[in-house]
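Page 37, continued from 36.
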């Protein structure tokens, strides 16, 4: 019985770090996917890439309109369209 316990402990010691590393990589991939998502702006017939700069502009929009933060991906279509309308009237070179 004791030799099997050694084999099991050694196997766990070798497999566990790889499993934890794979899980961390998957979480990083999901985080990057959320940050670099593309959204269609149907009202203006174009697409916008969601990146850290767009996130910053979105937070500025919420602040200027005295709205609480809500993840853009979870906002309903009307809320997203309101943002895109505001966004088209506030180009990137207008940032503070």
């Amino acid at each position: 019985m004791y030799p099997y316990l050694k084999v099991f402990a050694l196997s766990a010691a070798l497999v566990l770090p790889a499993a934890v590393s794979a899980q961390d990589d998957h979480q990083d991939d999901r985080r990057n996917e959320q940050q670099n998502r593309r959204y269609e702006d149907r009202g203006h017939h174009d697409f916008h890439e969601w990146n850290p700069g767009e996130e910053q502009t979105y937070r500025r929009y919420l602040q200027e309109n005295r709205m609480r933060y809500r993840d853009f991906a979870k906002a309903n279509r009307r809320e997203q369209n309101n943002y895109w309308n505001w966004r088209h009237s506030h180009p990137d070179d207008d940032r503070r």
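Residues 36-94 form one domain. Flag for discussion at group meeting. The beta strands are 38-41, 46-49.
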